[in-house]
Each structure stands twice: as C-alpha cells, then as structure tokens.
Task: inverse folding
C-alpha cells in the first residue's frame, strides 16, 4: 500500500472507530466501545505508517 493509501485508510479507520466508540459509550455497550477504540488506534498506526513512508521517500529522493 502506498503512503497516500495508508493515510486515507488510517483516517477512515480513525473516524469509524470514534463513531463506534461514541455509540458504545452512549448506549452503554462496552464491547462496541472497545471495538471502536481498537479501530481508532489501528487508524492512527496506519496514518503514522503513511507519514513514515513519505519521510523515507523524501530522504531517498534527496540522496
């Protein structure tokens, strides 16, 4: 997956996770809240991977 794809997928997972977490909190559904928190964390990692790929590519391009 390219850096842009990683960043887009990451942001999508972050948003979906936040929604799940909020719905879980509002309804008292601890399982949904936990799944949302995990998905949000996964999204943050994906976004970070995309940013790291950009940094590596930039460093290689400057060589």
Result:
């Amino acid at each position: 997956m390219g850096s842009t794809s990683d960043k887009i997928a990451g942001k999508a997972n972050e948003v979906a996770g936040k929604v799940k977490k909020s719905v879980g909190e509002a309804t008292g559904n601890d399982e949904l809240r936990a799944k949302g928190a995990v998905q949000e964390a996964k999204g943050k990692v994906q976004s970070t991977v995309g940013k790291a790929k950009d940094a590596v590519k930039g460093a290689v391009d400057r060589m």
Notes: The mean pLDDT is 95. The first helix runs from residue 3 to 27. Residues 3 and 53 are 6 Å apart (CA to CA). Helices lie at 3-27, 30-61.
